[in-house]
Amino acid sequence: xxxxxxxxxxxxxxxxxxxxxxxxxxxxxxxxxxxxxxxxxxxxxxxxxxxxxxxxxxxxxxxxxxxxxxxxxxxxxxxxxxxxxxxxxxxxxxxxxxxx
Length: 100
What we know:
Number of helices: 2
Number of domains: 1
Structural class: alpha+beta
Largest sheet: 5 strands, mixed
CATH class: Alpha Beta
Radius of gyration: 13 Å
Helix content: 10-25%
CATH topology: Ubiquitin-like (UB roll)
Number of strands: 7
């Protein structure tokens, strides 16, 4: 018997091309960390902007009403992955921290 297909959204982190699955309710930062990919982050509540990155493809929704982005930044594709939940597959351009 074949295992059921994994229909969790995929997060692709560029420029390295890493792909990780995102569990329901997980932010992009949480999913990346669970897979061993360390995206830059600090507060994890959308205020410090340390995790700021560009959404290249896909769509996100927010854990909070208004993340720490201006309307212009949002229009240009900037997101805060610490409070971003994927709506399907997403690709981001992000700074990845070196691991221990």
